[in-house]
Amino acid sequence: MRLRKFGLGLVSALALAASMGVAHAKSDIVVAMQLEPPHLDPTGAAAGAIDSVLYSNVFEGLTRFGPDGSVNPGLAESWEISEDGKTYTFKLHEGVKFHDGSDLTADDVKFSLDRARADDSQNAQKALFTGIETVEVVDPLTVKVTLKEPNGSFLFNMAWGDAVIVAPESIGDIKSKPIGTGAFKFTNWVQGDRIDLEKNADYWGEPAKLDKVTFKFISDPTAAFAAVMAEDVNAFVGFPAPENLPQFEADSRFQVLVGSTEGETILAANNKLPPLDNIKVREAIAHAVDRQAIIDGAMFGYGTPIGTHFAPHNPDYVDLTANSQYDPELAKKLLAEAGYAEGFTTTLKLPPPSYARRGGEIIAAQLRAVGIETEISNLEWAQWLEQVFKGKDFGLTIVSHTEPMDIGIYARPDYYFQYDNTDFQKLFADLTAEDDPEKRSVLLKQAQEMISKDYVNTYLFQLAFPTIADAKIKGLWENQPTQATDLTAVYWED
Question: Going by C-beta distance under 8 Å and a sequence separation of 6 or more, which residues neighbour residue 5?
């Protein structure tokens, strides 16, 4: 009898110990980032901070990007492509529900794609959808998309955050109460502070390992450093003070990930605003800027110099930095040839990220040395979107374009830097219709060379992406093939 009681007691003790172990395993995480989203509709604004919080976590598309940049099935479990390359028939996963409990159907896909390409669409990447001729519901789980012309990038385009699938009934409140199909549900937004998500217990795919996620917004680099050191946050993605990375690397409490991004950081010029509409003036600006000094001074050495709008890690990248080597005397000569021997004054409007604010001060000094004065305005993100991106009310600005392989923006004359070159537009149309990899490679290289020689913008560097995290956190993305803080596979190591 005693043996039996002892045995039961031992079993109970082991069970208690096991349950205590489970109870103490962390299942929540606080992730900090510098920029707060202006709202929570990834299909209705250009702000990358929206995708940084919501991509894959809350919203999903027909396809999705993996951490290595690959395009993988998302809400579509499979698809068939017609022989002429113009028709894509998507088969949706069965049993997918939106966070409000409603079923995902082909009608929702049709609504989302039709909304994105509508005349009154507010989608910042509307060009991704303009090639769609029709979207047809075949049955509740099958949708057929017919294109006007073949598009070798269509599956890639459908993986963008701008192409996520939304429910018609959610649109009224989507900017403040997003309802998606992802592994986490939105629960709360305290503007100016944080966004809270919780695990979606009814998720159709591999369930999240975390029960609760809090995104904390800390814009000031000094405050960011203090929050991480005090362990008030568990991770800081896109850490804004690269000068502090060696200190974190020397501290066993933390892990430091420095990944690559799709972020071409540029000094963008308003190509329709005199004197920036003069190619010689834009070329002069390019030669007046010492990009390595900006990488060293603003980014403490983190960043890869670029000479065109293309990521150096892409196999089709062409190193064109020689087209805009630092040469202030050449810059002065070009300004004189353009009729501005005495220089001129223009605006330099800077969004909040450190690369822009710090880089802007360095660039202003470099331009002043060749006779160009800049009136600096430090804008909050919402102001930048309104004045610069939408209003085109600027001369120069600094921004990192973190969308994946987005050289196609140069084929859009109404885009904020207003480059209008019919030869480039024709080249990009040919690229879009081409599905042969070797021919696409040739066209991509030609596209890079064209915008480099037109000095559309001054190309600075490819943005590095530092993440500081608790050493026990596993599953964070190191690289940024798209703007995302995908936490669906993140967990705490015991």
Answer: none
